[in-house]
Amino acid sequence: MQTSSPFNPVSPGAHDISTLFIVTLIVAAVIFSLVTGLVLFASYRYRQKEGEGEPPQVYGHRGLEITWTVIPGLILIFLFILTLITMHKSDPTASPGTKADLVIIAHQWWWELRYPQAGVVSANEIHIPVGKKLYTLIESADVIHSFWVPQLGRKMDAIPGHPNHIWLESDKPGLFLGTCSEYCGAQHAWMRIRVIAQPEAEYNAWLADHQKLPVFPTKGEAAKGLQVFEEQTCINCHSIAGVSSNISIGPDLTHLASRKTLGTGILDNTPAGLTRWLKNPQAVKPGINMPYMKLDDKQIKELVAFLETLK
Amino acid sequence: MSNSVPTVRNIDTISMPGEYKGLLSWVTSVDHKQIGIMYLLITLFFFLVGGVEALFIRIQLARPENTFLSPDAYNQIFTMHGTTMIFLVVMPMLIGFANYFVPLMIGARDMAFPRLNALGLWLLFFGGLILYYSFIAGGAPAAGWFSYAPLSEKVYSTTTGMDYWALGLLGIGVGTVASAINLVVTIIKYRTKGMSLKRLPLFVWMVLVNGFVILFAMPPLNAALVMLLVDRLLNASFFTVTTGGSPILWQHYFWAFGHPEVYIMILPAWGIISEVIPVFSRKPIFGYEFVAGSSVAIGLLSFAVYAHHMFTVGLGHPFNTAFAFASMTIAVPTGIKVFNWIATMWGGRIRFTTSMMYAASFLILFTIGGLSGISFAVVPVDWQVTDTYYVVAHFHYVLFGGTLFAIFAGIYYWFPKMTGRLLSEKLGKLHFWLTFIGFNMTFFIQHILGLIGMPRRVYTYPNLPGWGSMNMISTIGAFILAISVLVFLWNLIVSFRSGKPAGDNPWEAWTLEWATSSPPPPHNFEKIPLVRSRRPLWDLKHPEDPDWKHES
Known about the structure:
The structure holds two protein chains of two kinds.
Chain A: H1 12-45, H2 62-90, E1 102-107, E2 110-115, E3 120-123, E4 125-129, E5 134-140, E6 145-148, E7 156-158, E8 164-168, E9 174-180, E10 192-198, H3 200-211, H4 220-231, E11 261-262, E12 267-268, H5 271-279, H6 281-284, H7 297-307
Parallel strand pairs in A: 1-5, 4-10
Antiparallel strand pairs in A: 1-2, 2-3, 5-8, 6-7, 6-9, 9-10, 11-12
Chain B: H1 16-19, H2 22-27, H3 32-60, H4 71-105, H5 114-136, H6 161-189, H7 202-234, H8 247-264, H9 267-281, H10 288-301, H11 317-329, H12 331-345, H13 354-377, H14 379-385, H15 389-419, H16 425-451, H17 467-498, H18 536-541
Helix pairs in contact in B: 3-4, 3-5, 3-17, 4-5, 4-6, 4-15, 5-6, 6-7, 7-8, 7-9, 7-10, 9-13, 9-15, 10-12, 12-13, 13-15, 13-16, 15-16, 16-17
């Protein structure tokens, strides 16, 4: 996996920004070398030597002043023009009435994902088709967050009462990491983003899988786990299609077992990880909204068995 | 007023404790020099507190998934670090210098309003105490130094920390406005005969511009703090969206203050650099009018650039375009200054005292901070780097590599005037090199951390390739910086007690503060020299080639 840096762009918009960034850095490097060179040269050449008196007193030079006003001015006009071009190119304005392909709703401290046209709901791990621009709304359910996946392009704040949009797109398949980048409280650090770009067929298969209800267990430990889920108030905050729906206080769990991480990136999604999480989420990720449920070991084992069936 | 024979004042015949007796003479003082020194001591104390907070931050971040601090404790400490360094260290430290030196440099006996001056100081002190009382009262604020709503609202910040934050800053904010009024009036009304605005020392020029910037920048913050308090304590809803308010409104208020604030924290520092570089290069400042004029331009433009902090808010391309243009424009007058300072060194006879070493390295470090700043005006690049460690690196290059290096240059330059004794150059050079190495080691690498995806304000981070080792390097740098601060404190103490006597004018400088004894008497001057140019003491020493012949 490549470093998740703006310099490893995988979308047209991110490419444009990367190029502009490199131009900016080259301009900066030239100016930096000039200034540092002059300071070091002057420091060496004009240091006071033993027995020297006062140097000739020079008060200024209008021509020089104008030169070093005009040249930086021209450089900045050049950068400003590039800025305008790249700004519109990498983040084109949407025509009014564009339908959202994806709605990302930031919560303290996880991402709710809705694909309104496919009717799919998920959390934290975003699947997108390669080579297609998804018109993506960025919203917030509580405080201000910011959606940022460096390789895919610009970041955009998620602000309550102020829906924003971005174009989410990838040139090639792969896993691209991102993170919330506006400080949003206690667990801002663990509000990671995983974007999985897939070839269109694979993506459609993923969508189709997620449109289906999971097959609910009818016997054994897993079936008891479902009962625990319903009886121990888990159901008040988490949706599982077919069991409860349209609740988004906590992440949707309908296809939890198909995800790679738990707690928005803090744990791997394994039976061991899930057990640790259920034992006391406050010990894993202090400050989150999920309380310590005081489940006993048997209940946890049953719940894990149940949740593992939610492929 | 002193009873001693005025003409033989020096460190051996008179010392500050002799003139300013006992604690009471300090806490009741309305003397601008005592107030200036108290500003410097209070801010030095908070600098140490903020520095310890920085070490806590760096220990926690030294390796991935570290558990040295709990998330909540970390969030409180980074909030207090930022708030302390900005409101209780950098801004008031510069005001402290201005308090001490502006009246001396313009040949005045004191500030225009001595009691108001004391009020400003004590509002700062008690504002700081209120802020820190939050730790005892149930938890410090933890919403970051810009306390974005609605995170800072009662629903999401349930402890009283935010209330103490707002109250403390309100006190400091009102005190700062008082200081600014005082400085502006003093500079406009109390200049000695011959000290026209065209002959003002550049430090005074920058303080004057700074005074105006403060007057227009602090009120939005003070107003917003009151609104936040009303929201939190009286259940109003200025900044909560569910009851009709707007969280973005807070951002407009805050940055309408917050960006001019950046210039409030750098203008007087530029003033110090504009005093130190000429004196140690033995030449007048190159292009006085351009340095002064560009500061006025910056003062005005500083109000037109604030929303470059808001390019990811989603306010639309036309909005972003306007603020990108203004933000690029402000780079020009800033760049002019750097070239003027270099031109001042050019052809000089540079004396590399500790003060000059800090000033010369300021030029390079501030340039790095300025150049990385351009990336935020380039809107699409800002979309990538804002709120990452790249920003943290950037503003530490501006505020530490820039302002703090200038402050150190100023301390080594003016300590002899304030105490009558020189700081040790030997310890000073050690201090300089430790600071220079520690600073660059701590902060340069943070640019790269930001560029590989590390957001700012995280209490920990996943173990991604390179993140752990780069953070460790940064932490080691921070400890080198901590050692440099200890060397500095040691230098202050030993030099204050037994440093070499300075005499009136140890650096052969040219401005009026060097025309009186070190330390100056309570009434500042026995006799104020005639001011006929920007460098009155040069004219005295070189009657054959005085400056006024060269100035129009």
